[in-house]
Amino acid sequence: MSDEKIKQLQEMGFSQEQAANALKVSNNVLEVAIAHLFGEPVEQPQENKENTQLVPYNENDTVQISNPLDIPKFPSYRETPTSSNGGWSEIQDEELIENYEDEDDNDNDDDLVDQWTNNSKQTSSETIFDYPQAFTRLTEMPPCVLPKVTGTLQSCLISLIVTLSQIGELRNVFFSKEFDYGFDENWYTPTTELTVETPEKFKDNSFYRFVVEIQRIFGFLSPKVSNRSFISGENLFKSLPEDFAIDDDDWEDVIKKVHRYIALGSESILDKDLTLVFLSQVESNGEETTDLSILQIEYEARNLNLQASLNSLIWNSELNPVFTKLGLLLTIQMFGGDEDDDDDGRCQALSFEIPEYFYPGIFTSTYQEIIAKMNQKKLNATKERSSITTKLLGFSSFEGKKIKKILQNSIDYLATTDSKEAHDDLKRLSEKVQNESLALNDRLKFVNQEYLKMDVKNPDNILEIIEKEGLPPPEKYYLTSVIISDSEYIYKAKHLTTTDFENEDWLYIVIDLDHNNKVLEYRTETMSFEALQLFILEETKLNRRQLILHYVAESSLQDLAKVPEKLVEFFDKDNQLLAEEVHEFNKNNKENDAEVSNDSSVDESFLVSHSETQSL
Predict the structure, then answer these.
(1) Which of 7, 183, 518, 596 is deepest in the core (most CB within 10 A)?
(2) Helix or strand run (H / E) with residue 373
(3) Residue 602: pLDDT band by 50, 70, 90 thresholds?
(4) Helix-, strand-, coil-residue percentages of the chain, each rounded to 5
C-alpha cells in the first residue's frame, strides 16, 4: 500500500484510516479507492477468458471493487474514573454497570431478582426518613430531594424541578422576590403539613404556594444554604393546583404542565414572563406555525448522535419544518424502544452520543437561505465528482484490466521489435493518459474539498459560511441534565459538587426502591462530562430506555441571583435545629455506650467470680 496514495487521499479530506481501508479494498488502485470513498456505484470486474491484449497479462492486474462496512468501537464507561460522593449509601463504579455484565445470564438474573425482592420485603416498612442520623450533609455530599414513591406524577415532577433548579435564568426569576416560608421542625419529612401564610392579594391565586415551594427547593439546592443531606418533595406536590394532577399523565404531559405552571406562576406571583424560556415555534411548509415545548424523537428515528438525529428529523421531513422561534430551554424527549421488538429484531439497541453543546439556531429561518445555497453547491459538486470519477475509472481499467499496465507491457514489447512508430505512438498515449489522470485527480481534490465544506450535516461548515457572510452566529445551547427515569437522572450542579477530581460537576442520582416503588434510600455520584457521555453510550447500547435532555442557551446559564434573605433565615433556623438534634443524638449514643460498657463489666465480674467458685 503506497504511502503517497494515502497522503493524496488525506489531502482530499479523508482520514488516514479511511484512506488505508479504501486502498485495501480497491487493490491499491487510487481511482477506485476514490470512488469507494465517495460511495459511487462501480462496475464489478467480469471474468474474461479471452486475451485481447497485445501481450500476455496476469490475473493480478484485475481490479477488484468492494464496499465493506466499518463498525465503530466505543470506549467502555469503566475506563473513565469518577468519584463517589456517597449519599444515604455510596455508589461504586462497578455498580453503575454491574447489570450489563450479567444480562445474558438468566439464572443469575433470577437470583438477583429473588434477592432484591426478599430484601425489599424485609425493609419495606422502613424508609430513609426513619433514620434521623442520616440527615446531616457531609462536606462532599450533594443534596437530594426525594419523593415518597416513584412511578407517580410526584416523582416525575420532582426530577424535573430538581434538574431545572440549576438554570440561571430560572433562579434569577424565582429569587427575585421573597415570601413567608412558614416553619415546622419536621418540615423536611413527607408526613408534615407545613403551614405558609398567604398574603391577602394572593388568597385566590392557586399558584402562590407552588411558587413558594419551588423557591424552597431552589434554595435547598443552592451552595452553603442548608446543612441537610435530603428533604422530601411532598410539600411541592401538595402545592400543585387541583387541575395539575391527572392519573393517566405521561412524561410529555407532565413536562408541558411543569413548563406551563412555572410560566403562569412566575407571571402572576413574580411579575416575570418566562414564556421565552419554554416556548419554541415551528413552521411547516412555509405555512402552518405550531407552538412547541418539547422536541420529540421516536426511537426508530435515533441516529448515532443528537446532531445526526436532528438533521434527519428536520431536513429529511416532507413537512420542511423550520424553527421561527427558539426557547431558551430546549427539552428533547428521546423515546425508548418497545421491549417486544426484541423477539423479531426490529429495534436493536444502538449507542447514542449526546454532545456537551450544539447549535439549534442553524435550524431556524434566519439561516435557511445559507442552507439552501450550500445544498445547491453540494449537489453541483456531487455531479461533477461523479463525472470525474467515471473518467478516472475509464483511464484506470477496462473490463477488469488495468490500462496502465496494458500500455506499459505493450510499450515494452514493441521496444523489442522493429515497430518504432507504434512504440512511440503508444508511449505518447500512455503519457497523455497519465497527464490527464493527474489533472482529473487535482480537480477531484478541489471538488471533494468543496463538497465536504458544503455538507450541512456538519454544523461547523454552516458556522464557517455564516461567519463569511457577516451574519450574527447562532447561540450555543449547553446540556444541563439527562433524565433517564423519575428515579435516575443526571444534572449539572457545579457549585454543589466537592471532589478531588477536576471538572466533576455533574451529579448522578439513583433512588433505591422496594417492591412497591417506595423510596428506601438514594445514592449519588459525581462525574465529568466525559464520564457522563460514556455512561449514556453504555446505557443506550444495552437498553432502549427513554432519555429526556435539557439544553439551555448559553446566555441563560449565568446565575446572578442571591437566595432571598427570609429564605436564608428559614434554613439558618433549620440548620440550628439540626445541629441541636445531632448533638443530642451523639450525647445519647455516648450515654448508651457507657451503660453498655458498665453492664459488660458487671457481667464479666460475675463470670469471674462464678468461675472461681466452681474451681473451689
Answers:
(1) 518
(2) helix 368-396
(3) very low
(4) 50, 15, 35
Sorted by sequence, the CB contacts under 8 Å of residue 379 that are 6+ apart come out as none
Contact 527, 493 (CB under 8 A): no
Cβ atoms within 10 Å, residue 471: 13
Question: Comparing C-alpha atoms, which of 28, 30, 18, 29 is closest to residue 68?
Answer: 18
Q: Which three cell numbers stand for residue 424?
A: 512511440
Q: How does DSSP classify residue 303?
A: -
* Amino acid symbol at 480: T
Could you tell me if 120 and 113 are in contact, meaning their C-beta atoms sit under 8 angstroms apart? no
- The one-character DSSP state at 494 is G
Read off the pLDDT of each residue in 116-142 and give the average, rounded to a whole number: 60
Residue with cell string 490500462: 403
Percent pLDDT > 90 in the chain is: 44
**CA 268 to CA 281: how far, in whole Å?**
24
Q: For strand 519-527 and strand 401-402, is the pairing parallel, antiparallel, or unpaired?
A: unpaired
- Is 326:361 a contact under the CB 8 Å cutoff? yes
Q: Which three cell numbers stand for residue 15?
A: 482520514
Residues 238-276: pLDDT tens digits? 998 877 766 566 899 999 999 999 999 999 999 999 988
62 forms beta bridges with: 401
Coil, strand or helix: which one is 495? helix
Whether the predicted pLDDT of 413 surpasses 90: no
Helix (H) or strand (E) holding 77: none
84: three-class secondary structure by DSSP: strand
DSSP H helical ranges for 515-564: 529-542
Q: 3-state class of 423 per DSSP?
A: helix
Q: Which of 257, 331, 338, 263 is nearest to 292 (CA)?
A: 331
- Cα of first residue to Cα of last residue in the chain, in angstroms, is 99
Q: Which of 358, 355, 276, 281 is nearest to 321 (CA)?
A: 281
Around Cβ 248, how many Cβ atoms within 10 Å? 5
- Distance in angstroms (rounded) separating the CA atoms of residues 431 and 437: 10
The C-alpha cell at 476 is 450555543
DSSP state at residue 240: S
Q: Are 469 and 366 in contact (CB under 8 A)?
A: no
Instruction: Please report where in the chains the cell 457549585 appears, as a residue.
Output: 495
pLDDT for residue 112: 31
Note whether 380 and 332 are within 8 A (CB): no
